[in-house]
Amino acid sequence: MLLLCRFCSSLLPSPVQVRRMGTRNFRIGLIQLLVGKDKVANVQRALELIKVAKNNGCQIVALPECFNSPYGTQYFPEYAEPIPNGSTCKSLSASAVENKIYLIGGSIPESDGDKLYNTCTVWSPSGELLAKHRKVHLFDIDIPNKIRFKESDTLSPGNSLTTFTFNDCKIGIGICYDIRFEQMARIYRNQAFFQILECNLLVYPGAFNMTTGPLHWELLQRARAVDNQVYVTAISPARDESSGYVAWGHSTLVDPLGQIVAKAGIEEEIVYGDIDLNKVDEVRNNIPISKQWRSDIYETRLVSDK
């Protein structure tokens, strides 16, 4: 029996088939949320779609970057809240418990003392805050006659990399512009060299714009996947042409060979993808680049993790 997803054209295995999934394979739901200026409405809509994703067999659900706030430096101070005691975090924690899922909370503007951060939270089925990733690389860009945007006008950068474990899968977190820095992904992949379980999946909530989106959104995901032989997913807000910052959309899941597993359009929808860690093992065994890299000539190393 197959189910047709209400929010996308993908055919989904039945709940019986999903229950047969073990610790080596699982379903992830990517919520491409239409974000407006009403913070309460944004969060409420996210909670509704999280439940839909759970009902379609997802064990992990991921939200987009700045899902409770319009994306813009002028909005961050107004929408920011502390983590984990802000209203959005309380809602995410309760939703993870209600739906018995691991919930990757996209990102929200975080307030901490006199500083603001762009921060992703991860919640366990018991409602525990498993991880908090502050965007490491701030999006400061000036493309003449196209786009100028400086997150550093408002935000401070994070200073650490972030992972958590779901069953047999180690998952690394980045936010949007972080995906452009392949050294960060390489460290996630090669954490075995730092005596930490290496990542099999990298998750990047992101909001590429109408200039960089068509150029690099899919390309960067496929590059990080092929370079590091991991699954890569990036979750965008839905496109809103009336917004001051127009997101590209096209939330995507890519496999370790760089093939597209699932991809959204531009509207609000849920994209579903099944992740098979046996495929990660197969790709790494067939093309054993992690055993062949020349550490005697070059290295990528973690300098600090504060």
Any descriptors?
about 300 residues, alpha+beta, seven-stranded mixed β-sheet, six-stranded mixed β-sheet, single chain, Nitrilase/N-carbamoyl-D-aminoacid amidohydrolase
How would you sum up this structure, described in words?
The chain has 306 residues and is α+β, with helices and mostly antiparallel strands. The chain has a single domain (26-292), classed as Nitrilase/N-carbamoyl-D-aminoacid amidohydrolase. It is 25% helix and 27% strand. It has 8 helices and 17 strands. It has helices spanning 15-19, 39-55, 76-79, 87-99, 182-189, 212-228, 277-286, 289-292, and strands at 2-4, 11-13, 25-32, 60-62, 102-104, 108-112, 115-123, 129-134, 140-143, 147-150, 162-166, 169-173, 201-205, 231-235, 252-254, 260-263, 269-276. The strands form 4 sheets. Strands 3, 4, 5, 6, 7, 8 and 17 form a 7-stranded mixed beta sheet that branches. α5 links the parallel β12 and β13 (201-205). α2 packs parallel to α4. The radius of gyration is 18 Å and the shape is globular.
Quick take:
The protein has 306 residues and is α+β, with helices and mostly antiparallel strands.
Per DSSP, the total helix count is: 8
Kindly report the name of the CATH homologous superfamily. Carbon-nitrogen hydrolase
Name of the CATH class: Alpha Beta
What's the structural domain tally?
Answer: 1
Share of helix, binned: 25-40%
Largest sheet: 7 strands, mixed
